[in-house]
Specification:
The protein is mainly beta. Helices cover about 15% and strands about 50% of the residues. Strand 19 and strand 20 form a beta hairpin.
Length: about 300
């Protein structure tokens, strides 16, 4: 049985044993700097795994490897593109992992920077596209739902789709009265990370700048960003006020997607997507995400 099939089988078994409705029990997660972390074990070492809807890769943390002096089987080199650029790395194969109660081996992992040393893995598209996942941010919990038990095409309340070039989920929002497509990214610890051209075009740098710069850490490198305080942000049926937003400093480019391609392949980027929507927005809601079909429902949490 293949590694991802083992994870799917484990969750499917949990679903069938818990409820006839095709919904698992809630699993608590840890929120660290806006990142969703669940327990995992690699080579007998306890740690955490990040669930990241904005990543088209599965990755393993360099800091975790170095701390524990681990060595793994290496594969072919590829390019990984993060929000600030691309880097050539080698794939890692046959990593023993225990996650969601399943003992598996994961391959084609990217060796990358994904936080503190106890963070072991990052799971993106190859994992999330197998299920409908419900993320209850206010109560720090998640669960999985089978597609035959819910029809998000009827219940969705956001205008969403899969990005044409990457397959990642994007959502149509209204920023200070301006319609824009943003990447829905559970791996982003900020609120809004916007391309500089949309902020400049609409005068937001002059009107809403806090005159403070911050460091934004991407999957490959860290860069300076200018901070804005937007008066109004519309997210589906909800309106939020005084929303923080970040814009790359002048001369820097924001790479929206985190894609992996073979060496020598040209990387294209969807022209529609103008930023990233992350934790500071998502933390108020329960997000139901059908990653495979690009469908999203957003709601306030239950009491």
């Amino acid at each position: 049985m293949k590694p991802l099939q083992k994870i799917i089988f484990s969750i499917a078994t949990l679903i069938s044993s818990v409820t006839f409705a095709g919904v698992t029990d809630w699993v608590e997660f840890n929120l660290s700097s806006g990142h969703i972390k669940i327990p995992s074990v690699i080579e007998g070492i306890d740690g955490f795994t990040i669930i990241d809807s904005g990543a088209s890769i599965n990755g393993i943390n360099k800091a975790f490897i170095n701390l524990n002096n681990l060595t793994f089987e290496e594969g072919l080199p590829i390019y990984v593109r993060g929000v600030h650029g691309k880097e050539k790395v080698k794939l890692i194969n046959n990593v023993k992992v225990k996650i969601f109660g399943a003992d598996i081996k994961l391959s084609q992992l990217i060796r990358t920077n994904i936080g503190r040393k106890e963070t072991q893995l990052l799971l993106g598209a190859p994992f999330l596209e197998k299920f409908i996942v419900q993320l209850d941010y206010p109560n720090s919990r998640l669960r999985f739902i089978t597609r035959n038990s819910i029809d998000l095409r009827k219940s969705k309340n956001l205008i969403t789709k899969r990005d044409e070039s990457t397959g990642l989920p994007i959502v149509k929002v209204e920023i200070d009265g301006v319609l824009s497509w943003l990447l829905l990214d559970t791996g982003s610890s900020g609120g809004l990370y916007l391309e500089r051209n949309i902020a400049k075009k609409n005068g937001w740098l002059e009107k809403y700048s806090t005159n403070e710069d911050i460091l934004i850490k991407g999957i490959t490198r860290t860069k300076v960003a200018n901070q804005l305080q937007l008066p109004i942000f519309t997210f589906g049926p909800f309106k939020l006020e005084d929303v923080p937003a970040y814009v790359p400093e002048d001369g820097a480019k924001l790479q929206i997607t985190r894609r992996v391609v073979n060496t020598g392949t040209r990387i294209s980027q969807s022209k529609k997507v103008q930023g990233i929507l992350g934790y500071d927005i998502l933390k108020h809601f329960v997000i139901t995400l059908d990653y495979k079909n690009g469908l999203v429902h957003v709601a306030p949490p239950e009491n």
